[in-house]
Structure formats: C-alpha cells, structure tokens
Amino acid sequence: MFGWQVKEPGPDIRRALIRVPMVVPRPAPGELLVAVDACGVCRTDLHVVTGELPVHRPRVVPGHEIVGHVLESGDGVTGFRAGDRVGAAWLRGTDGTCRFCRAGAENLCPESRYTGWDADGGYADFTTVPADFAYGLPDGYSDAELAPLLCAGIIGYRALRRADLPPGGRLGIYGFGASAHLTAQVAIAEGARVHVFTRSEQARKLALELGAVSAGDAYDEPPEPLESAVLFAPVGDLVPVALRGLDRGGTLAIAGIYLSDIPALNYERDLFQERTVRSVTANTRQDGRDLLAFAASHRLQVAVTPYPMNRAADALADLAAGRVTGAAVLLP
Fold this sequence. Notes:
Blueprint: E1 2-6, H1 13-16, E2 17-21, E3 31-41, H2 43-50, E4 66-73, E5 85-88, E6 91-93, H3 99-102, E7 113-114, E8 126-130, E9 134-136, H4 143-146, H5 152-162, E10 170-174, H6 178-189, E11 193-197, H7 201-209, E12 214-216, E13 226-231, H8 238-244, E14 246-254, H9 267-271, E15 276-279, H10 285-297, E16 304-308, H11 312-320, E17 327-331
Parallel strand pairs: 10-11, 10-13, 11-12, 13-14, 14-15, 16-17
Antiparallel strand pairs: 1-2, 3-4, 3-8, 3-17, 4-5, 5-9, 6-7
C-alpha cells in the first residue's frame, strides 16, 4: 500500500509530507483493519504537517476524518463485520478510568490519543481503528460527504454547544470553512439567526446559500448584537473582535486546536458585562454519536472539494492558502 508520512514538519508542505510504500497494518486486539474509501483534509492535519503541533509519532500518517469499510477484525472485537462501513475520528483512545472519563469528559483525559497524531491515520490505502472508537455511519450520504462530518462536523457541533446558544438565538460564526459550514446548518435547523464573518467572498456566498442572515468580512461589526459566537479561524486577533460583537452575557467558543496569539484584551470593552470565553478541546464519542444522529435526521449539505489520494500535499497547500470552499476530501 501507499501512504503519506510527515517526514520533516515545517512550513514547506511539499517537503514535509512524502508519499511512500508502506506495509499493510495488522489489527491489534480490539482493532479493525479498514480500507480507506475517503479521508477529509482537516486544518489540524495542516498543524501536524507544518509543526504548529508538536511531534507525537515520528513519520506519522495524518488524517482523522476517515470513512472506510472493515476488512478484518482483531481479537475480541464484537459488533462489526467485514464489509461494514465505518468512520474514525480525531479521538482514538482514552484510559477510561480517570476522573474526566468517569465524569463523561473523556475529551480531557490526560492519556487521550489521537488519530493521525499519536497513531497513523487515513492518508493511506489502509488503516487501523480501535473498535470502541469507530462509528457507524448514516445512510443517504456519499463517502466523500461523510468524511468531513467526522471532525469538522463533530468539533463544530461541540463548539456550538459550548457557545450556549439559546433557542432561536443570534449566533456569530468567524471563519467559514469545513467545520463552520456544517455548524451553521445545525444552528439554522434549530432556529438560530446566523451571521457569518469571513475574508473569503466565495465562503460568504456559500453562507448565504445555506441560510445565514448575513455574511460579512471577518472584522465587520455584526448587524445585531450576538448572544453567542464560535471562532473557527485560527486567528487570535479575532478574539477581541468576536467579544465586542457579543451582547451582555454572551459566550464565545474557540473551536480550534491551534490559535495564534491573542492580543491584550480591554476588560471594560471586551469582557465586562459577563461575557464569557470558552475553549473547545477535541470531542467525546457522545458528541460524535449526537452529530451523526442529527445528520441522519436532517440532511446536511456538505460542500466537498475532492482530491485524489496521491494529491494530499496539494490539498493541504490549497487549504493553507484559503483556496478550498467547504471541505477538501481525499479519495483513493
């Protein structure tokens, strides 16, 4: 088989990421061997490749929005059969015993492990997935449409919940890529008035097509005070901008795993009147199950830009340059 490995993390994506022949992995006890049918290209992959995230596994294969079918099961696996369509997401494993896991906050487990960072992911022909962290997938979507749901969708869903949006509330979304365009649809389906702020003219057009009330530049003032906001763009300069757009008592959730430095905040202007800032860390499996159940009952429009698997470096470069509308997806 062939797979893409992060040879030398750095800003030159085509130097950092190389395609090499690899041995087909064997499923360990509790794991599934999966043939990759689609793998989404996530901004977190970009952070792994460029070195903005520290190396966890040398020469790791990126990719954690994996759709595939089961080829083989390791010892002890139940509930899956050869040929089943399955998904794998960012969260790959936890200790299951710490106080966070016991409290239902497994995303905060100190021993958590991640697909495409701690273990090889989906930028390859085959991969392994712990069966306890694999997802059944809803019908009615293509493999390419399902792939972005497995991180962009799940993380956006968790960020929306962290933003404490009241029923029928006013939501601001800053940045409008793979995750944001799915989150906006969830919020709109639940009755929210959504305002989108992004530098991309094409993304603003997509936002309006999906039902956003307005779509402006990333640094614009919202047309009405916001009760909640989600920051998807990894740009710390937008934190005070988003805070100033909030009404009294509003909440800003920051969805990314990486964010450039946040400038100094002015307490009276940016935080006073009980405005709240929250981070979002990975996801729980329940987040994934909830999002996929929502997708089964509400047909989401998933904007996909397909790339053949042998152009993974091009897909990441296009993502870095803002040339991808919606979600880039690798297809074998």
